[in-house]
Give the backbone structure.
Amino acid sequence: MKRWQDKLRKIDPYIPGEQSDAPNLIKLNANENPYPPSPRVQKVLSEACADQLRFYPDTNGRNLRSALARRFGLKPEQVFLGNGSDDVLALAFQAFFASNQPILFPDITYSFYPVWCDLLRIPFERVALRDDFTLDPRAFDRPNGGVIFPNPNAPTSLSAECSVIEDILQHNQDCIVIIDEAYVDFSTFSCVSLLEKYENLVIVQTMSKSRSLAGLRIGYALCSPELAAVLESVKNSYNSYPMDTIALACGTASVEDEDYFRETCSKIIATREHSAQALQALGFTVLPSQTNFLFAKHKSQRAEAIFNALKSENIFVRYFRIPEIDNYLRITVGTDDEMARLLRTLQHIL
């Protein structure tokens, strides 16, 4: 062993969904949007930004922050921008989870949380979900250095009721509570309305899923001006680079096209519902999704075998080798045609 190797950071990294450039591929493993972004975004890409790229971007992202503030009925100083919600979350871990007490998050959740904890040396405890994968608010009633959970949850696709969220907030008013709303636009409600009531609440959202902008990395936090200022301070302490000019312009154009946003979300929700029914007819148990993906297990066939059989047919879904969920598949909702091909292939495999 080389003498310097014991000084290197050792960490188990986050593993994203498998990528492939295979022809005739149906990619249903990364929860990407099957529809193109707003036509206004496409117009920005073709026209508006060309002359601006020789200048540095607006370090404050004023247009995008103002557009988001208008949409959510907030002040611009309550909006913090980052290069994707993962960037925002990583900064939030550094900004808000700085005590010696462990932070709390569900034991089945977004797998990046423990990676950040290991990297930043933040103590943490996993909170057990109920047998039906729902949140138990009483499980968060313990001393902690902060709370974070997705709502809706990934990969289970389930959304907690607003009363459950408020219960957790009411019993954790001495720490920061972060709600990761990456999939909220496919759900029935957001917790943004709770910001006025709970000053320790931070909500993180993304434009990767519902706005078809995964390739631009646009994320943001909604919180009190005080907490947004702390995020800015942490960001500027190690990485002063803002979102780029194209991302800022395209994000603003997307937020200002509410009709297109609602149209594509409605399409995905409709496809999600009839796809869930079709999977159930094939013998799958499908959890009641509030996201742009389905979490399903078959009554007799193992998930890993189905995953490999689909992959051999150039259909990629997500399989997790995690004991509690190793017989489930996470299936992104694609177009109607993509889901029809998935279902035909599953029928043949089964």
